[in-house]
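Lab manual, section 2.4: Encoding a predicted structure.

Procedure: take the sequence of the chain (66 residues), apply the prediction step described in section 2.3, and record the output as structure tokens. A sample record is shown.
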Amino acid sequence: MLKEKAGETAGKIWGALNETDGLTAKQIKKATKLVDKDLFLGLGWLLREDKIVTTEVEGELFVTLA
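Recorded output:
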């Protein structure tokens, strides 16, 4: 059940990122209306699948598609 939720959440995040050159975690959260734990669940899924790249910009987590 959690694995299915992670995949769905990852899809929402990927969709939000696909329309941009990258977003901060806060911007992704706002665009997808995800709570923190679901946001990081989806980000973890995408990181594991090598679909995203994360960096830290001015103390903020910044995410782009790989």
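Check your result against the sample. The domain at 2-65 is CATH 1.10.10.10 (Arc Repressor Mutant, subunit A).
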